[in-house]
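Predict structure. Chain length: 775.
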Amino acid sequence: MKLFAKSPAPSRRFLVALAFPASKREFVRCVAEALAKQLGRERIFFDNWYRAELAQPDLDLILGDIYRKHAELVVPFFCQAYGEPAWCGLEWRQMQAVLQKGDGGRLMPFRFDRVTLPGSLSGNGYADIAEATLARPADFVTPEQVAASIIARLGPVHATPAAPVAPQVIDALHQIPPPPVKFTGRAKELEALHSHPCTYDEAHAIVISGAAGTGKTALALALAQTWKASFPDGHVFLDGRGAWEEAMTPGDLMAEVIHAFEPEAKLPDGLEGRNSSYRRVLAGKHVLILADDARDHAQVAPLFPPPGSVLLITSRYGFKLKDQSPHEVSKLVPAEAVELMRRYYARLSDDEAGELVEQCGSLPLALKLAGSRLAMDAVENRGMANVEGFLAELTASNDGPVSMLNTARILHLSEKMLTESQRGCWLGLSVMRSSFDERAALAVAGAGEGILDLLVRRGLLERQGERLRMHDLAADYARLVREPAMLEAGLLACAKHFVAVCEEAGAACLAGGEEMTAGLRIFDAERSHFDAVFSWLCCRADAESAKLLISLVNAVQPVSALRFSSGERIRWLEAQRDAARLAGSRAAEGNALGNLGKVHTDLGDADKAVEFYSERLAIARTAGDRRAEAAALNNLGVAHSRGDVRKAIECYEQRLVIAREIGDRRGEGIALGNLGVAHKTLGDTARAFELYVQQLAIARETKDRRGEGNALWNSAILHGQLGDLEAAILRAEEALEIYESVEAPAAARVRNVLERWKAPARNPTAAPVRTGSAQ
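Prediction complete.
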């Protein structure tokens, strides 16, 4: 079947056709992927995506049709090697035909190496692409930036964004990935670990310890793989962040396990309360928990599970847990090290294998890097790797940027095999300390599918299930050799990407239902990145970072009550307040102050809440923002109601005046309801009834179901306290019907009180509902 019909179509099939030499394929593949995310894959011509259709005679004519007839914009990438392959010459002749027709506006040339453009293009406009080098890190142009300029050239008519790529949602109960594909050896260690008694009638914990690069995690994953079937209720993976400056707290780790089973659970702040919830969630279940990279005994001891589950721990530091000594791992025994090398390249002689193992120190990570180097070499040289040449490099004098032995030295040699573009992507990925998805790789470092696959094949990246990760030693090495300017650019790109992801997660949580659960899963999967971005932004004092920090803290607000302790919420909001002051954003400062007031109100610290709400009120009045002023007055009234009810009434009355002034009927109803609660507290039941009646009328007018339920419930409480149980029950049942559809916790409270009122020994007391924060 022909790729294209001979008769011209009314509109061109492709928006963009990409032409390039083979040496730039990986870079252009990333450009194509970035374009596809915005324009749709079917509108981009990138040859590898159409192999089946291109596999036919007369390919020169078919390519000519693509460039001359079937692409809105032809984008050639020129470099010194462009004219060498025959196909590039063919492509260029077709582009010349476009120029000769006076249709040069359909060409958008890019050039590498500042090469002289061919023929009639030399006087036309073009764009330079300077690939990242260690000497010129600031010149780095990412494929995403190239794609953005192409989309801008197409104009707004064509640049209709495709559906955004959704963040990856993790299966929270099956997080533990399989072991590495080429996992080899460790027979003695596995035998010892398998001999560990593992029965459901008691709890178990096993510690695997060893230095970085010895393969602790791979061993733990191999053990977990054999045990998964025995623990059908869940396989939870925890990252202890033991190598980070700020490791995970025991409470944070327990929260991850709890949220794997109960994603919307709101947890207590204290360690004792979280431990109680942790043990409740695991009780009666068979769960396998892998806590990777633990800092010390204090971090993981509280995670010791109840009977029926097992806790598997890896750590660089050996420590006992429940009198169980750690299982120490170090380098592989020679026979297993040789076996691992031959899994990468089977043609090694005994002498070659022995020398390679010695040069790698029998360390699994070093062996993996060396084996990957030989495997890639074999692919590129018809199945024969240059083992002699590689050994010569290994034994040569150390010419790297740092003093390196074993793993670091082989990392240096692996890095040298990358092109400048590939090296730039790999170094860019080192800013992400935890696992990441392909979307993050593209956004942060311009690393598309092709480059990621190449880095995995070279052993410079690892796959963990559907995600990727750079080994800690590799990341440390990359950060060491990377220029400061390039590091700053990577960290800024990382911050921008994860702020956007956090905004997506927050928006999903606000949508409620299944979307809320998905949003929480996304937040949990990327939490380590959000924490790292927050810490980095807090250390900076420039306007751009301040604005990003404001956006990040805004994005976490929908999930902070479910995922942050009160202390964390306060720390993030105080940082946002300071960033808002740096950026000169009074509105953002006011929002941060209002949210700080709400956290302190929830903690019962009325004095601090009043302090923050008063600051927010002052900002709103200075800005002349009447709605913000009304919200601040309402919140200030709630804070005062805990101690000085008459001050609360003053705030509510001022809020009522503003609501009527600006025509905010719903806000008027909220103010009336809160005034009713305050007057009831002072014993003025007649005034309270009058205010509740007014609130109910407005709530029904504005279709405010929650406000309607509050008015009915507060009226029911008053009737009950006055001894009119018949009226109290009637109002409470009306409130219950509403709450069951809009607020499940309130419905449960009303149901409990109704049961008491209807019981023989009636006790008509209950707490009124006060409208809280109106932000």
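Summary: The chain has 32 helices and twelve strands.
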